[in-house]
Amino acid sequence: MFRKVIYLSTIIVLITGIELTNAQFQPEGKKFGFGIILGDPTGGTAKLWLNRENALAFHLGASYFGSPRIGVDYLWHFDVFETDIVNLYAGPGGVIGIGEGNGFWYRGRFFRSSSEVGIGARGIFGLNVVPKRTPLEIFVELGVLIGFVPNFGSSADAAIGIRFYP
């Protein structure tokens, strides 16, 4: 699975024709972006940059954890590739799932009945691509989800998405 993510990320970088110098983590210094996320969860996403390296990422959509699923992650961005265009990020988050899940790859219940609310914590790791001189951010992420309420359980997240910065 990790090889597929790296392969997909490399293709995204090559397709966008990116110049790998003199850019920023966030598109053109803009602070707020919104877009779509496909995978688990599948739905809408938004990102609010707090500073050059930290951001809050939000999602609302369908998931195995619950449909609808609402979540927020606090992200740290790392310049491991010595460029601001392609970066890794990681951070903790929280999710609330309502009712039976409706994930992209599978359907089911996250250790609860279809009428209950689930609360869980999430650890996220991802790669984002911010093409120079564009208002876009393309990202791929993997996560671990641990449900606490109403029962204990675990799951994995994987998604790809794009955000637009107006």
Major sheet size, sense and barrel closure: 8 strands, antiparallel, barrel
Mean pLDDT: 79
Category by helix and strand content: mainly beta
Shape field: elongated
Portion in strands: over 45%
- Strand order, largest beta sheet: 1-2-3-4-5-8-9-10
Rg from Cα: 16 Å
Give the topology string: H per helix, E per strand: HEEEEEEEEEE
The CATH class is Mainly Beta
Low-confidence blocks of residues: 13-24, 104-109
Commentary on this structure:
By secondary structure, the chain is mostly beta strands. The protein has a single domain, classed as Beta Barrel (Porin), CATH 2.40.160.20. It contains 1 helix and 10 strands. The strands form 2 sheets. The protein has an 8-stranded antiparallel barrel with strand order 1-2-3-4-5-8-9-10. It has a two-stranded antiparallel ribbon with strand order 6-7. A hairpin with a 4-residue loop joins strand 6 and strand 7. It is elongated. The relative contact order is 0.23. About 11% of the residues have low confidence.
Keywords:
166 residues, 1 helix, Porin, eight-stranded antiparallel β-barrel, single chain, mainly beta, 8% helix, elongated
Secondary structure layout:
Layout (H helix, E strand, L loop, with lengths): L1 H14 L16 E8 L2 E8 L4 E9 L6 E10 L7 E13 L2 E2 L4 E2 L8 E13 L6 E14 L3 E12 L2
Antiparallel strand pairs: 1-2, 1-10, 2-3, 3-4, 4-5, 5-8, 6-7, 8-9, 9-10
